[in-house]
């Protein structure tokens, strides 16, 4: 089994276990960090364990290796194919990497959290909460004091770090911001001796093309599902 075949579970049982709300067979992140959860396998026991830790929320996001039908009483409220891509060569093709003046790419801090959340809510790059920035380094580009684009690190497992929340405000599309942010993150992750990876909706052809230009390769098609637990539990 490849370490990235069940990345949420792996993250919550290794490098990011300190975030985990844990049940016997399931774990999840606090909802204000990210609305993601995982279990070892999608068995009845796994779902029962998951339900037991969804005490303050009704739904959560899961990754599967194939489309799933949850047990009776559970409902799938959203989902779709999710391409997992990986960057294994450790190098960025400079032909596709815009150069920005030093200091234009900045690290996001706690004071930036409201703007980061607002940009994520506008552009919908995936689950993003008020504390998501605590998962790793998040970088941004500002224009006129306004957050124009951002990207950062989400899931972390031994030897691998996920790049996530790659988004650009509609007013600033086409300027190479996403490529510049991702290239910087890839450089930092590879510099730590880790392998960058990411997840993108399989129908997002524009994003996939960008990631391939930056050196990412398709590894496997996963399936994302937002599931709602039976009520009452």
Describe the structure.
The protein is α+β, with helices and mostly antiparallel strands. The protein folds into two domains: 7-82 and 222-228, no CATH class; 85-220, Gcn5-related N-acetyltransferase (GNAT) (Aminopeptidase), CATH 3.40.630.30. It has helices at 7-13, 44-53, 113-123, 177-191, 205-213, and strands at residues 21-22, 26-28, 37-39, 59-64, 75-86, 105-107, 138-143, 146-157, 160-168, 195-201, 217-228. The strands form two sheets. An eight-stranded mixed sheet has the order 4-11-5-10-9-8-7-6, sandwiched between helices. It has a three-stranded antiparallel sheet with strand order 1-2-3. Strand 9 (160-168), helix 4 and strand 10 form a beta-alpha-beta unit. The protein is globular, with a radius of gyration of 18 Å. The mean pLDDT is 92.
Strands across the major sheet, in which order?
Answer: 4-11-5-10-9-8-7-6
Summing up helix and strand content along with how strands pair, one would put the structural category as: alpha+beta
- Main sheet makeup: 8 strands, mixed
The secondary-structure element order is HEEEHEEEHEEEHEHE
> What is the CATH topology classification name of the largest domain?
Aminopeptidase
CATH C-level category of the largest domain: Alpha Beta
Radius of gyration: 18 Å
Number of helical segments with 4 or more residues: 5
């Amino acid at each position: 089994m490849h370490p990235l075949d069940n990345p949420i579970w792996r993250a919550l049982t290794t490098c990011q276990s300190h975030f985990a709300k844990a049940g016997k067979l399931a774990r999840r992140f606090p909802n204000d960090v990210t609305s993601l959860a995982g279990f070892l396998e999608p068995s009845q026991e796994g779902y029962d364990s998951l339900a037991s830790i969804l005490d303050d929320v009704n739904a959560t996001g899961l990754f599967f290796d194939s489309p799933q039908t949850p047990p009776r009483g559970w409902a799938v409220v959203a989902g779709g194919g999710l391409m997992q891509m990986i960057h294994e060569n450790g190098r960025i093709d400079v032909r596709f990497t815009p150069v920005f003046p030093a200091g234009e790419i900045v690290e996001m801090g706690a004071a930036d959290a409201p703007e980061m959340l607002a940009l994520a809510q506008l552009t919908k790059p995936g689950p993003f909460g008020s504390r998501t920035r605590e998962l790793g380094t998040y970088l941004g580009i500002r224009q006129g004091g306004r957050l124009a684009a951002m990207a950062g690190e989400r899931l972390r497992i031994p030897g691998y770090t996920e790049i996530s929340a790659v988004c650009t405000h509609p007013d600033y599309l086409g300027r190479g911001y996403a490529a510049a942010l991702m290239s910087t993150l890839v450089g930092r992750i590879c510099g730590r001796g880790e392998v960058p990876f990411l997840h993108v909706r399989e129908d997002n052809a524009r994003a996939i093309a960008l990631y391939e230009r930056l050196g990412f390769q398709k590894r496997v098609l996963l399936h994302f599902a937002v599931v709602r637990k039976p009520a009452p539990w």
